[in-house]
């Protein structure tokens, strides 16, 4: 199953690569321009800069930045007036004179201070030529960059050094570092405001600091998000010469940090789900990070519900159903056939405790406070209109709430379910569905009290909710039961294993029929 997550990253990586034909077209145009400038005596060497040059650009290709280093024989003219504009004019004349790019136009979109922009008919990207001279510091990698607005060459660029550092890091990480940078950049597409604040070099800088050896894409993305959440709380230059966040307001900074913190949580949860054996849920989390370019196998909600019912798992803090171990034990619902068939209340006790918070005793002692915690989202996901109060002078307590449908259930038309949970000092638990009384029920008493039949008290302890397990696992079981009831109404098949109605003959509990549940019982044994 874990391989499915890797396959998802491979598919994402393929979609984030530049089109091979466009890449080849860019190489041809670059070579053509370099030949024309070299023939005119205006090029000594040339190097790519920007994300395209560092191989971290995502499609579509919009521009190719080419730094053109002029021959050292012209360096003495660098300080002369008008020399920067002379370089731009020389490039244009050389390209037009060579006739190698018919119909080429210059500076169509803008006249940038540092680059001559070439627009070629039939080509979707521009080629931006940046005139440069080597500095006097031979071998240090610095260049002087032309500025035609200021008519000067005093701005120094470390483009060559930056290129070499990124290339070395990518090689040291087994050649996958650039792929992981592209993935991290892509995550920005889900927040337009953050994307407008975070430049590509900032993401590369975070990745450069966070990833120093070959990692899986899952590990790498977690580290990049963690680095952003930590580093971007203040000024940050990274691989640049100046602070990459200098233009941010305090509000901008807070927004960016929240973005990285949230995605760090998503990524860490995805890894937890994968390690727990639920690749599909993990891929769903990664899709929350990367969007639809990250594929998720199509599995119906009913099938997911059936799997979790059989093997257990959890309902996560963001309302995701998963087989990763957590607050949902496997279970088998059972229904009494008449009042005399026996007590259908939940099993009262067991020596082990999960130390869940809040406890069932807390619900008995302070139902209103527990209800307030639930309404604040501190107990379970998707609790609404929560009310808690004492009954019978404190001998019992009641909790009423709406259980909102999990997102994947809501996508298939499931509605909210209102329930009433009654607990007593004798550790009895009764759960009643409220509203829409006309609905049929597979596992609910037909006689009063018409409570849900969540489990058979005599079943194996591995399959039971018990009082020490606490309120969160109880409500998770209730939610699972309600979702199974809705699936049964729609499909006519209970999504999981169920017990026959009525008591077993001679007191012998029916054996578990599913091999998946038998294996799960060993995992959940107590």
TrEMBL record:
Protein name according to UniProt: Nucleotidyltransferase
**Which species does the entry assign this protein to?**
Fodinibacter luteus
